[in-house]
Design goal:
Structural class: alpha/beta
Shape: elongated
Order of helices and strands: HHHEEHHEHEHEEHEHEEEHHHEEHEEHH
CATH class of the largest domain: Alpha Beta
Distance between the termini: 73 Å
Largest sheet: 8 strands, mixed
Helix content: 25-40%
Number of domains: 3
CATH superfamily of the largest domain: Type I PLP-dependent aspartate aminotransferase-like (Major domain)
Number of strands: 14
Strand order of the largest sheet: 3-10-9-8-7-4-5-6
CATH topology of the largest domain: Aspartate Aminotransferase, domain 2
Strand content: 5-15%
């Protein structure tokens, strides 16, 4: 334990031209010497003053390096006996095995934190985000939050934002609710998780639209429910089909304002039938209001929750499509009878995220920026949809312009999943239509094209790439041949 210091065992190189601090350079040199055995346990290191003089640095610089090594339990202070190398357990060879952990949503998303491409779904117009206004409000919110008393935040979300959302919903979606019925979430998926936890419906069946959002189907299975596909036609969900298939379902998850991916609106008759079923069977309807007021063909239909006197509808909204997914904020409007239960689940398991962003968004809504932004976005998206309609290759069978998307059907037997995987190589990112169906192999193949990021300078190139993709020899493989 009294091995002397041998300066020849450690070769210090101090490079003041590097961006790496000198303290870090000294720490790294000593760490490597300790770990590879050149500095043995018990060996005394030079004093701060001696090593500082040797290296031509300040004594405090050496002291900081020693303290960093002590934090890593590589050295220890022995008082008058100086700083010594610590004992370490016997080193064991570490077998490094290759790890291949599949990333989540790999069948639905081309990747994460990537630059959005033309036709990509789920991403609003990047060039129209009110960056200057948001930066100013965000800075103000950071300052206010830093100076505020730091107690426990309301797990349902900041009262100011919940009050603004309640006021906004009354104007834009026709929903009259108390702010305490609103629970802030990080988006739709988090809102669905909160809802399923609060309802406690594990082991039950749930209606899902067919075609419908594939994430919802998988989320229900993960949560322990059995999804029951219910057909969608030009009037929306076929409630009669759902009643025949699963009259005892605990919940129905619908997109009544603008059905995804078809864009149809649930008819008044179907709305009434759906609410009557929920009341009769003591079931719940989860309204995924994913596009909110972004109806391009006139005024958006009122939310289903606005026509719900029995309190059977749970409304899930998000700011991902109307503002930006980078906000990471959404909300759930719980029926009055369930508001306390939702608040309890939020408090124990699912608290609201990011107070600073909440405060900034409260000002964004309260100062009127949100409604002005929506008006601008509707005009912009309408123009981009019309531009695509005028420019798309006539040989591509486009039969519907649904909300913010265009559905382009492909010849029967085409592999739209393979086409979608190939598309980013051409600079575009359409979504395969078949994955929205409960039985993809039996569905009509196609591509879902989003118009939000289809800027005019990129329109011709994107449309040419789409035409080349669809016509590419061998790209649209026939499933029957693959299966054979």
């Amino acid at each position: 334990m009294n091995a002397p210091w041998d300066a020849g065992r450690v070769a210090f190189t101090i490079d003041r031209s590097q961006s790496t601090p000198i303290t870090a350079q000294i720490t790294t040199t000593l760490r490597c010497a300790i770990l590879d055995g050149r500095l043995r346990p018990g060996m005394r290191l030079p004093s701060w003053l001696d090593l500082a003089a040797q290296l031509g640095v300040a004594r405090g610089t050496v002291k900081a390096a020693y303290e960093a090594l002590a934090d890593e339990l590589l050295v220890f202070s022995a008082g008058a006996a100086g700083t010594r190398v610590a004992e370490r357990g016997p080193s064991r060879p570490v077998e490094v095995k290759p790890v291949d952990i599949p990333r989540p949503l790999q069948d639905l998303e081309r990747g994460f934190s990537l630059r959005p491409l033309p036709f990509q779904m789920g991403v609003p117009a990047q060039d129209a985000f009110p960056a200057k206004i948001w930066a100013r409000l965000r800075t103000r919110a950071c300052r206010a939050n830093a100076m505020a008393p730091h107690g426990i935040s309301d797990p349902r979300g900041e009262p100011a934002l919940r009050a603004q959302i309640a006021a906004n919903l009354a104007i834009t979606r026709g929903i009259c609710c108390h702010p305490d019925q609103i629970i802030l979430t990080s988006g739709y998926k988090n809102g669905l998780c909160l809802t399923l936890l609060a309802l406690g419906v594990q082991g039950r069946r749930a209606w899902v639209e067919d075609p419908g959002y594939p994430v919802t189907r998988s989320a229900l299975e993960i949560a322990g429910l059995t999804p029951v596909p219910v057909a969608v036609d030009m009037k929306g969900l076929r409630v009669d089909h759902g009643v025949r298939a699963a009259p005892d379902a605990a919940v129905a998850i619908v997109t009544p304002g603008q059905q995804a991916p078809t864009g149809v609106t649930l008819s008044p008759e179907r709305r009434g039938a759906l609410l009557a079923w929920a009341t009769r069977e003591d079931a719940w309807v989860v309204e995924d209001d994913y596009l909110s007021e972004l109806q391009l063909g006139g005024r958006a239909a009122p939310a289903l929750a606005a026509d719900d006197p029995a309190g059977r509808v749970i409304h899930i909204g998000t700011f991902s499509k109307t503002i930006s997914p980078t906000l990471g904020l959404g909300f759930v409007v719980a029926p009055l009878a369930l508001a306390a239960r939702f608040g309890q689940v939020a408090g124990y398991l699912n608290p609201a995220p990011n107070v600073t962003t909440q405060l900034a968004l409260a000002d964004f809504l309260g100062d009127g920026h949100f409604l002005r932004h929506l008006r601008h976005m509707k005009e912009l998206y309408r123009q981009r949809r019309d531009d695509l309609h005028a420019r798309i290759d006539p040989a591509i069978a486009v039969d519907s312009f649904a909300g913010l998307t265009v559905i382009a059907h492909l010849p029967k037997g085409s592999d739209d999943v393979a086409l979608a995987r190939r598309a980013p190589e051409l600079g575009i990112a359409p979504c395969p239509l078949s994955v929205w169906h409960a039985r993809p192999s039996e569905a009509q193949p196609g591509l879902v094209l989003c118009v939000t990021n289809l800027r005019k300078p990129a329109l011709d190139k994107a449309c040419d790439a789409l035409a080349a993709l669809v016509k590419e020899p061998g790209a649209a493989a026939v499933r029957a041949q693959v299966a054979a």
